[in-house]
Design goal:
Layout: E1 14-18, E2 24-28, E3 34-37, H1 39-47, H2 62-66, E4 68-69, E5 72-77
Antiparallel strand pairs: 1-2, 2-3, 4-5
Protein name: BED-type domain-containing protein
Length: 87
């Protein structure tokens, strides 16, 4: 369930358990991992990006990392989630 005013693709893969704070309490719909974070930590979890303060998702299929979304890659030219800090 994405936050209001967000159509970022990463929110399709998490459930917001508590949105009462700036960092939401999230649950990954793929592996069940629960953590506090925002969009950047969701991307870090799904893509296994180091130094995001969250473990990588061991159940994220390759298509989550490289699937095209609305004509653009989710994570730059290499595939994955869009807008991951220039990665």
């Amino acid at each position: 369930m994405p936050p209001k005013n967000s159509n970022a693709p990463e929110w399709e893969y998490v459930k917001v358990l508590d949105a009462s704070k700036a960092n939401k309490y999230l649950e990954c719909l793929l592996c069940g991992h629960k953590y506090y974070g925002s969009a950047s930590r969701v991307r870090g979890h799904l893509l296994g990006i180091p130094d995001r303060g969250v473990t990588r998702c061991l159940k994220a299929p390759r298509e989550v990392k490289v699937a095209p979304r609305a004509g653009a890659r989710l994570h730059g030219a290499q595939g994955g989630l869009a807008g991951v800090g220039g990665v």
